[in-house]
């Protein structure tokens, strides 16, 4: 879900939405200009144009209410496809080792089928709306043509050619204008989905008034007292009533099956989610200092190594606080 919002939705906001919005405004003004010219030349055309406009607005409102929900459905069914594909690529060796290729392929097909159903439904209702637009435009063209025939004695050749050429030109512009308006409306769902992330509960402050000493932690003592930890406010406890002391210089190994809480212990130290209870590192309560002061003083080696773009020195010392000699000593050790 996060990958989908920060790839497809951000792409819509940055690339497609501004261009579509600008093109919609241009085509909309062009359509309004054509209607105004026709009404000025043949004033009584305004009488049938008004009910046609009302019918169009009703159809557009009905279509937008449906397409907006279908677009949300399409976005929500697209996320499992990306998630399953990413997890399958990451665990490809495990899948092959346990000969689970068929199971994962069937699961991917089921996610893809759900997304294809929503996508096909979106295309279908778009075609349904396009057909009704063509009918409305056909009625408008017929009114302009028959109005020109009825008033052929009062119109000169220039006026007749003007309204007919403009009316035929709007044949392409009007459907495109409506499709752009619907497209802009649907792409605003991407904006809505991204804005949801701006309203999430934020982490604790990065820095507080109390700052730990520059050489903290110089001993490495860790003490936990009645620590409860969960990843979300309404989620289950993954660490419950954890109390332990790790003395300076000790090397402690934590063993357990998958889901026992090994990684959650590290997450509690880094305050990836705020733990309940008290955690001390070198006699300083971790909740009394800012997240930057806490996290930049600790290091973790993950199971899957990650090398950032840049030099080896930048990976070893991203904050440029150590000399080359110190880094060489670390590499040799």
UniProtKB/TrEMBL annotation:
Gene giving rise to this polypeptide: LOC104985764
SUPFAM superfamilies assigned: ABC transporter transmembrane region (SSF90123), P-loop containing nucleoside triphosphate hydrolases (SSF52540)
GO MF terms, alphabetically ordered: ABC-type transporter activity; ATP binding; ATP hydrolysis activity
Stated name of the protein: Multidrug resistance-associated protein 4-like
One Pfam family recorded for the sequence: ABC_membrane
Transmembrane segments: 32-59, 135-154, 160-178
InterPro entries reported for this sequence: ABC1_TM_dom, ABC1_TM_sf, ABC_transporter-like_ATP-bd, ABC_transporter_C-like, P-loop_NTPase
Listed GO CC annotations: plasma membrane
ABC transmembrane type-1 domain boundaries: 1-186
Alphabetical UniProt keywords: ATP-binding, Membrane, Nucleotide-binding, Transmembrane, Transmembrane helix, Transport
């Amino acid at each position: 879900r996060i990958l989908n919002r920060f790839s497809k939705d951000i792409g819509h906001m940055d690339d497609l939405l501004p261009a579509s919005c600008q093109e919609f405004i241009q085509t909309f003004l062009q359509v309004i200009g054509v209607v105004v010219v026709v009404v000025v030349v043949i004033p009584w055309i305004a009488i049938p144009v008004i009910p046609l406009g009302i019918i169009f607005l009703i159809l557009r409102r009905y279509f937008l209410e449906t397409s907006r929900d279908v677009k949300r459905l399409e976005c929500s069914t697209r996320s499992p496809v990306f998630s399953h594909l990413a997890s399958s690529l990451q665990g490809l060796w495990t899948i092959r080792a346990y000969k689970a290729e068929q199971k994962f392929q069937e699961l991917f097909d089921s996610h893809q089928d759900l997304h294809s159903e929503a996508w096909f439904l979106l295309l279908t209702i778009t075609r349904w709306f396009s057909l009704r637009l063509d009918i409305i435009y056909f009625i408008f063209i017929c009114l302009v043509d028959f109005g020109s025939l009825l008033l052929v004695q009062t119109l000169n050749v220039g006026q007749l050619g003007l309204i007919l050429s403009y009316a035929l030109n709007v044949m392409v512009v009007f459907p495109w204008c409506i499709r752009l308006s619907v497209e802009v409306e649907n792409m605003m769902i991407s904006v809505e989905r991204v804005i949801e992330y701006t309203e999430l509960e934020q982490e604790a402050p990065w820095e507080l008034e109390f700052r730990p000493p520059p050489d903290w932690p110089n001993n490495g003592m860790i003490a936990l007292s009645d620590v409860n930890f969960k990843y979300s406010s309404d989620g289950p406890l993954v660490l419950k009533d954890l109390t332990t002391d790790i003395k300076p210089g000790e090397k402690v190994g934590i063993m357990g099956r998958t889901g026992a809480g090994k990684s959650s212990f590290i997450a509690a130290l880094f305050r990836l989610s705020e733990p309940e209870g008290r955690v001390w590192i070198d006699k300083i309560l971790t909740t009394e200092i800012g997240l930057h002061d806490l996290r930049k003083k600790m290091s973790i080696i993950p199971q899957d190594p990650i090398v950032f773009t840049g030099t080896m020195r930048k990976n070893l010392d991203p904050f440029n606080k150590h000399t080359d000699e110190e880094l060489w000593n670390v590499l040799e050790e």
